[in-house]
Design brief:
Blueprint: E1 2-8, H1 16-27, E2 33-39, H2 48-59, E3 63-68, E4 82-86, H3 90-94, H4 97-114, E5 117-120, H5 123-132, E6 140-142, E7 164-168, H6 176-183, E8 189-193, H7 198-207, E9 210-214, H8 219-228, E10 231-234, H9 243-251, E11 255-258, H10 263-267, E12 272-274, H11 279-291, H12 293-307, H13 312-328
Parallel strand pairs: 1-2, 1-3, 3-4, 4-5, 5-6, 7-8, 7-10, 8-9, 10-11, 11-12
């Protein structure tokens, strides 16, 4: 069976989705062969839309899976053999005016109508799709993201006197500002992965938080960042899933995350959850993780157990069964 994954054209600093589906491909049964096709977006070419649609048509296979940020490629694919994975709907909330209208139609309204089945990476994303696009609700299947290769338990003595806190992501919804305010005055070092804007840098300087900033890092460097951390903070305001949660859990690091969905469901019992809008609450939880070894060890053990739900083999198996169904049937039967 010929399976094709359609991904966005590689861009420096953007690789989270690609890493996820590389892990899925690596864990699929050996008899499943998957070809990867890259499609452009507006950053790459003025003619990105016709070029991408033409490329999708030319490279189509028996089963076609759009796996990240090129939803429009469905215009060049047979709908009955097409799967669309949606990570989140956050950009719908961010864009305004004509850009918002075009994005909504090319990335959601049309693709959701055309594709035989839609996969969402969390219950939260599925619910948002059903609310925003009710006509697609009965074709949405939840398949989570997998823990990536290399993310496994790596015990490390906890540095209680000066812990290293890892924060993955610096976009507005990652809630970096409140985290910085929360740890102001605490003896710790903050490692931020992602590009900082001028206001974030000014806040860090005013707060006198000891920090390190990394961007455009490799997979190996990301793994090292987790390995060197004592605590992983992910008090995000909105996510489609929340990969840093399970990556940290799989590594055996205590996790502090948001009490909002989908973070709390992804974390299970393996994290300390907190209201991400409450700076004082975030500070108290960070303080507790540093000072309370028993609570820290309990959260770490529960996190290691929770991460087992998201092995690449388990997730790849769910996709393999879906590919088989898409190859042999169409319509509503695919979601059962």
């Amino acid at each position: 069976m010929q399976i094709v994954h359609f991904e966005r054209q590689p861009t420096p600093g953007q690789h989270s989705v690609e890493r996820v589906f590389a892990a899925v491909r690596g864990a699929l049964p050996s008899e499943w062969q998957v070809k990867v096709v890259h499609c452009p977006n507006p950053r790459h070419s003025f003619l990105w839309l016709p070029q991408g649609v033409a490329r999708a048509w030319a490279k189509r296979g028996e089963v076609n899976h759009i796996v990240g940020d090129v939803h429009y490629a469905s215009l060049g694919l047979p709908g009955s053999r097409c799967i669309l994975t949606i990570l989140d709907l956050n950009r719908l909330d961010q864009l305004k005016g004509l850009r918002s209208t075009l994005y909504r139609w090319l990335y959601f309204s049309i693709p959701l109508r055309r594709c035989a089945v839609i996969t969402a990476i969390s219950e939260e994303t599925r619910d948002r799709i059903a609310e925003a696009f009710p006509f697609a609700a009965d074709r949405v299947v939840v398949i989570p993201c997998p823990v990536l290769e290399g993310y496994m338990s790596r015990p490390k003595p906890f540095n209680a006197s000066y812990p290293r806190i890892l924060q993955v992501g610096t976009a507005p919804h990652k809630n970096v500002d409140r985290l910085v305010q929360a740890i102001c005055g605490l003896p710790c070092k903050l490692h931020l992965i992602g590009r900082l804007d001028n206001e974030q840098r000014r806040l860090l300087e005013r707060s006198q938080v000891d920090y390190e900033n990394s961007l455009n890092i490799s997979d190996a460097e990301m793994l090292q960042a987790y390995d060197e951390s004592d605590i992983v903070a992910f008090v995000s305001l909105a996510e489609g899933f929340g990969m840093p949660i399970i990556e940290a859990q799989a590594m055996g690091r205590p996790v502090i995350t948001s009490s909002l969905s989908p973070m709390k469901e992804v974390a299970g019992a393996g994290a300390l959850t907190v209201d991400p809008y409450d700076v004082s609450a975030i500070r108290n939880v960070v303080h507790d993780v540093i000072e309370d070894a028993t609570a820290r060890q309990r959260a770490t053990a529960a996190g290691l157990e929770n991460a087992k739900r998201f092995t690449a083999k388990t997730v790849a198996g769910q996709y393999a069964r879906l590919y088989q169904r898409v190859a042999t049937c169409t319509g509503k039967d695919l979601t059962t």
